[in-house]
Each structure stands twice: as structure tokens, then as C-alpha cells.
């Protein structure tokens, strides 16, 4: 079935396209103000885009140097003591041109920047420029604030508003595409600002202040700390990726040994993560939930005789708890967070005694046991889960599962177009 684009996303893309068109048209018609400064910042943004790397899950800024350079250009009032004359539309034009130039090699390899991130950068940079440049041009900023510490505080305030604008916009677009609750999405975006986002904002402000005093020579010097930070984040992301791959490989041990059907752990992990996001879990909680879902059946390796089809949901409660405790003991030896083992151990308890992640894993595992890889009999499986809400499954989790299945086109709600 053909998917339609949500109207919110269309509006955001249309706004970015209008800003880009207006910026390029104005710059081509009137020429470039302060061409040396525009060229320097354009090159900086292009270099930052060239250094961009594929963002792992949860990573919000894959091109921090380019973003910092764009913000610095939007907040630039002087260069070596001489006032600059570029305006809001030229800021947009230079940022777009630099990003496009730096993205060419990535596009040639078929790994261009994510469209949503590119659109958000255009809008947030334009927002920062609109907040700052008119005040600078009118003279109100110099008259009311001057060039002392209050001027730096003003830049920080503009950057805080810009970061808030970007977080709201990112959560809004993700909400429009996925229909997940907006509050948790915005919370995750705001939390992400404490990482590389704060470094980007701080570097942008320092760049604008340093160029105002020393000139364009400050740009390459101030890029080095952020490049080193980006390298550190890249290594950290590689470690996280390796950890997840190791856990996924360990989870497949039950499939290779013939204890569970092919793809069972992967399906349970994917569906559990979707249900957890629908219920408002944070990014960190979703990571723990994914790990627990991948390894929820690891205790079956201790069994002498495999459970038929690996369907532990159909076993007596005492046997389910025994397998869960065996699995928790194995998980504790893997080095993952201890809470992952707790979820695995408690997935067979009555749901009123379980933490929410364990309730999710139990319900999704039961659903997959009832339907299997073919996902036939979805309505029947959901009905059985609803009938067991008195003791085994939390009603809210079951209804969340039904909503997620509906978005995937497998439930009673029908397909959701993303």
C-alpha cells in the first residue's frame, strides 16, 4: 500500500524549501555581502559535512562541526572588530551551499545525510539568525547590551532557544511519522542536548565571539576540540554497536541449538521496543528493554529437552519461572547492565509484581509464541492476551501492542502510513 507523508512533515519540508529558495534567490540577485567571511564559513560547514559519519540509534548530530559553523555564522556580528553586513537570508544560503558541497562525496556513495536532519538544520539556523541579526542591524543589541559579558550571555540565550526549537521540531516530525507519544519523544530530544548538542552550541558561541575579536583565523583553531569530541563519540558508538551485535549473536544461540524458532528473539526485541516507545519509555530504557528481549529465552539452553516450538508462554507458571531464573543467571555473566537480568528473571511473574519492561517482554513473547513468523491469527492472539489480563498480562501493554500492530498493518486498526 502506498504510504502518504504526514501533513506536519510536509509543512516542515515546505518551510525549509521556502527559506532555501528565498536565501539563494536573494544572494544571487544582490550578491554576497562580505564574501571572504561567507567563503570561510561555507568551507567550514562543507568540511564539517565531509567529516560527518552515519549516526547510530539515539545519536542526534552526525555533523557537529558543520552545525557549529552554521550557528556561529548566524550569530556573527563582527570580524576582527569590523561589523559584518550579511543578513538572515544570506546565512541560510551559505549554510545550504556549504552543506551541499560537503555532502557530494557521501551522496556519490549512496550515503547522503538524512533529509529530516538537513531540513531541521536549515530551519534552526534560520531561527537563530532571525533571533540575532535583526537586533544587531537595528543597533538595539549594541545599545542595550554592549560588548561585555552580557553580550556573550545574549548569544547563549539565543542558542538555548535555538536548541529548544530543534528539539521541538525533531520530536514533532518523529511524532508525525510514528504516532508515538509526543511527550517522551520531546524528553529524549531534550536529554540529547546534554551530550554533543551542548558542545555544538558552546562551540558556535565561542566561534562567533572569537572571530569578532581575532578574525577568521579563529575558525580552524576552534574546530579541533569539536573534531576530537566527534572522534570520541564515534569510538563510543562503535563500542555500543559491538556490544549489541554480541548480545544479538548470543541470543541466536537458542535458535542454532533448535530451542526456539528462527528469528524469534529478533521479532520479540523489535516489537518490544516499539511497544516500549509507544508507552513512553526513554531511550536508555528502550536499550535495556531491547537487550532483555533479545536474551529472554537464553535460559532454555539449560533444558535437557527443548520446549516444543520454544513456546514458553504455553508452559506451566512454575516452569516458566524456572527457565526465567536460569536465563537471568546466564545474562548476569555477559556484562550487560544488571537490570537486564532482572527483566529476564521476572518476565514470568504475575504482571502486578513486574517492572514495566518485564511486562512488555512477557506480552510480546506470548504474542510471538501464538502467531510465529507468519504472524497469522493476529486477532485470535490478541483476544487470548486480553482474556489473560487478569493475571498474566497488563491491559495497557496488550492495548499498546494492538496499536503497534495496527501501525504495522497487522492489527485490527489497519495500516498506518508513515
Compact description:
The protein has 418 residues and is an all-alpha fold. Helices cover 70% and strands 1% of the residues. The protein has helices spanning 7-30, 35-50, 64-74, 88-108, 115-138, 140-144, 149-178, 182-214, 218-251, 253-256, 264-278, 283-294, 317-331, 338-346, 356-371, 378-387, 395-407; strands spanning 78-79, 82-83.
Q: N- to C-terminal separation? A: 11 Å
* Helix percent band: 55-70%
Mean pLDDT: 83
Widest sheet: strand ordering = 1-2
Give the topology string: H per helix, E per strand. HHHEEHHHHHHHHHHHHHH
Q: Could you tell me the radius of gyration in angstroms? A: 26 Å
Strand residue percentage: under 5%
Number of strands: 2
Oligomer: single chain
Question: Which class do the helix and strand fractions yield?
Answer: mainly alpha
Largest sheet: 2 strands, antiparallel
Our count of helices gives: 17
Please describe what this structure looks like.
The chain is built from 17 helices and two strands. By secondary structure, it is mostly helical. Strands 1-2 form a two-stranded antiparallel sheet.
Keywords:
disordered C terminus, two-stranded antiparallel ribbon, 17 helices, mainly alpha, 418 residues
Amino acid at each position: 500500500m502506498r504510504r502518504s507523508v504526514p501533513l506536519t512533515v510536509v509543512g516542515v519540508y515546505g518551510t525549509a524549501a521556502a527559506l532555501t529558495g528565498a536565501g539563494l534567490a536573494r544572494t544571487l540577485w544582490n550578491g554576497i555581502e562580505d564574501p571572504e567571511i561567507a567563503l570561510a564559513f561555507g568551507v567550514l560547514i562543507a568540511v564539517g559535512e565531509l567529516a560527518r559519519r552515519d549516526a547510530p540509534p539515539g545519536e542526534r548530530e552526525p555533523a557537529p562541526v558543520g552545525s557549529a559553523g552554521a550557528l556561529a555564522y548566524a550569530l556573527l556580528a563582527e570580524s576582527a572588530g569590523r561589523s559584518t553586513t550579511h543578513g538572515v537570508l544570506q546565512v541560510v544560503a551559505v549554510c545550504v551551499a556549504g552543506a551541499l558541497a560537503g555532502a557530494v562525496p557521501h551522496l556519490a556513495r549512496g550515503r547522503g545525510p538524512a533529509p529530516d536532519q538537513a531540513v531541521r538544520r536549515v530551519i534552526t539556523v534560520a531561527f537563530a539568525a532571525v533571533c540575532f541579526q535583526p537586533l544587531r542591524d537595528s543597533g538595539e543589541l549594541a545599545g542595550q547590551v554592549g560588548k561585555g559579558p552580557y553580550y556573550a550571555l545574549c548569544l547563549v540565550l539565543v542558542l538555548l532557544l535555538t536548541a529548544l526549537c530543534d528539539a521541538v521540531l525533531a520530536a514533532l516530525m518523529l511524532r508525525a511519522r510514528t504516532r508515538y507519544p509526543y511527550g517522551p519523544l520531546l524528553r529524549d530530544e531534550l536529554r540529547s542536548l546534554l551530550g554533543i548538542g551542548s558542545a555544538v552550541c558552546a562551540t558556535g558561541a565561542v566561534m562567533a565571539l572569537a572571530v569578532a575579536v581575532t578574525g577568521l583565523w579563529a575558525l580552524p583553531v576552534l574546530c579541533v576540540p569539536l573534531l576530537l569530541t566527534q572522534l570520541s563519540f564515534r569510538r563510543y558508538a562503535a563500542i555500543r554497536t559491538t556490544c549489541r551485535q554480541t548480545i544479538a549473536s548470543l541470543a541466536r544461540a537458542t535458535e542454532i541449538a533448535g530451542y526456539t524458532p528462527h528469528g524469534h528473539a529478533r521479532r520479540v526485541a523489535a516489537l518490544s521496543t516499539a511497544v516500549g516507545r509507544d508507552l513512553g519509555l526513554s531511550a536508555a530504557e528502550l536499550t535495556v528493554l531491547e537487550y532483555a528481549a533479545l536474551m529472554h529465552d537464553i535460559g532454555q539452553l539449560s533444558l535437557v529437552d527443548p520446549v516444543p516450538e520454544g513456546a514458553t508462554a504455553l508452559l506451566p507458571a512454575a516452569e516458566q519461572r524456572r527457565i526465567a531464573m536460569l536465563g537471568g543467571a546466564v545474562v548476569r555473566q555477559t556484562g550487560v547492565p544488571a537490570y537486564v537480568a532482572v527483566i529476564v528473571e521476572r518476565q514470568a511473574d504475575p504482571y502486578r509484581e513486574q517492572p514495566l519492561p518485564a511486562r512488555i517482554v512477557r506480552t510480546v513473547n506470548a504474542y510471538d509464541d501464538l502467531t510465529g513468523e507468519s504472524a497469522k491469527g493476529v486477532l485470535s492472539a490478541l483476544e487470548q492476551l486480553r482474556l489473560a489480563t487478569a493475571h498474566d498480562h497488563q491491559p495497557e501493554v496488550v492495548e499498546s501492542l494492538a496499536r503497534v500492530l495496527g501501525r504495522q498493518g497487522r492489527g485490527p486498526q489497519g495500516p498506518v502510513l508513515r
